[in-house]
């Protein structure tokens, strides 16, 4: 028998016993493709951590790839179908939360339909069950939490061989947007099951292994254009990051040579950077002042751009300062609704942001300037008392963007057909 003949025989065998996956009717994520490998003796799985020992004459391993698990982008599950010398199914195993479990609906096997094992992937998580009745109340309660409040808690999945080998990489922004997308997909499992309208494609494992990292990279690339998120965060400096009372100026000059950070400012900046936010300094004063102060504290390079009044030729609330910040972030005034300005000056920071429709956050940490708006133009959208409050507020506000712009299904941007 030639290699081509063996390949065609393996393909026919895999197709004959292809698992029939009955999905929860509320399931947002369908399987994209199954990759098969055929074993006639002991061997290491090419797609999982398990060593295989055929229970009979032949074992077919199916690697089931989903774009999404409700907790992370990328999901690979497994089913093992064991056949005797006559080609009859004598045992079925499947992955269940990292374990390899026997699928038994009561007589040692799951239901079989013309040689195809019938399995029930858990809603959102895709762990396999031989029958829904086997899912105990505690497991259902846990699943409800994972598919609801904890949806998207992991971001992009990196604990797999593809990411480990560098076949794809995820930035902080990729993780944040993946979490946003899954949080928007949160749902309540119905615990009613039916087959998908279209079955996933079947292919040899090497073909699926080549496809998966390309697919994950495509999904990540699609996220910025489909998931509502803040395009940039504009930050003032004095009494927003730096304690103005501690400033030391160069004698005979307005240039500050050093100053202390206000409590919590460093952690706030580190957290914003770690979340992949684009950070733009929007500050009034001599450029060298901000270079000195922020470089001293290791924060100058946290910013993607520095919009400083000395460079622009005007001060906040002049719209030119904010237009320059938008441009530096690769945005326009049409994007102002998905930017945030945080500052300590109602007449400059808040007034200027409000005029352009930028979400305004007043940092009320210092008492050097008024906390009372002169009029509606100086009324901030939100008020916080310290940097420690800002990241949590920002997370909540970004989640609310979903209510201002519908979230397209990222999967709809990509065909489920595998080339």
Automatic annotation (TrEMBL):
Keywords attached to this entry: Hydrolase, Magnesium, Metal-binding
Entry superkingdom = Bacteria
Q: Name one Pfam family in it.
A: HAD_2
> Does the UniProt entry include the keyword Metal-binding?
yes
List the protein's name. Answer: Hydrolase of the HAD superfamily
Instruction: Specify the species.
Output: Devosia yakushimensis
């Amino acid at each position: 028998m030639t290699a081509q003949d063996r390949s065609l025989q393996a393909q026919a065998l895999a197709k004959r016993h292809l698992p029939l996956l009955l999905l929860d009717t509320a399931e947002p994520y369908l399987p994209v493709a199954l990759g098969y490998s055929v074993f006639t003796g002991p061997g290491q799985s090419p797609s999982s951590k398990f060593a295989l020992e055929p229970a009979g004459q032949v074992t077919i391993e199916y690697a089931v790839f989903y774009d999404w698990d409700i907790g992370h982008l990328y999901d690979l599950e497994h089913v093992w179908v064991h056949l005797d010398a006559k080609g009859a199914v004598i045992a079925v195993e499947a992955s269940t939360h990292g374990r390899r479990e026997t699928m038994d609906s009561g007589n040692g096997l799951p239901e079989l339909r013309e040689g195809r094992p019938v399995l029930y992937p858990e809603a959102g998580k895709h762990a396999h069950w031989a029958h829904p009745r086997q899912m105990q109340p505690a497991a259902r309660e846990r699943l409800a939490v994972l598919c609801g409040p904890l949806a998207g808690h992991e971001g992009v999945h990196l604990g797999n061989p593809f990411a480990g080998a560098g076949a794809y990489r995820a930035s902080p922004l990729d993780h944040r947007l993946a979490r946003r997308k899954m949080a928007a997909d949160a749902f309540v499992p119905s615990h009613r099951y039916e087959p998908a309208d279209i079955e996933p494609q079947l292919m040899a494992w090497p073909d699926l292994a080549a496809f998966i990292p390309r697919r994950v990279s495509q999904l990540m690339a699609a996220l910025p254009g489909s998931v509502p998120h803040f395009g940039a965060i504009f930050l003032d400096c004095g009494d927003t990051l730096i304690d103005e009372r501690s400033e030391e100026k160069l004698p005979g000059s307005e240039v500050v040579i050093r100053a202390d950070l206000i409590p919590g400012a460093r952690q706030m900046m580190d957290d914003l950077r770690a979340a992949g936010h684009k950070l733009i300094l929007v500050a009034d004063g001599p450029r060298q002042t901000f270079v000195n102060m922020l470089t001293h504290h290791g924060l100058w390079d946290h910013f993607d751009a520095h919009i400083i009044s000395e460079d622009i030729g005007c001060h906040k609330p002049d719209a030119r300062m904010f237009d320059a910040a938008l441009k530096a972030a690769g945005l326009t005034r049409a994007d102002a609704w998905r930017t945030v300005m945080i500052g300590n000056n109602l007449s400059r920071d808040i007034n200027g942001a409000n005029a352009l429709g930028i979400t305004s956050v007043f940092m009320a940490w210092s008492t050097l300037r008024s906390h009372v708006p002169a009029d509606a133009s100086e009324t901030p959208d939100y008020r916080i008392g310290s940097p420690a409050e800002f990241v949590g507020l920002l997370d909540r506000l970004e989640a609310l963007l979903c209510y201002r712009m519908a979230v397209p299904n990222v999967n709809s941007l990509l065909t489920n057909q595998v080339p």
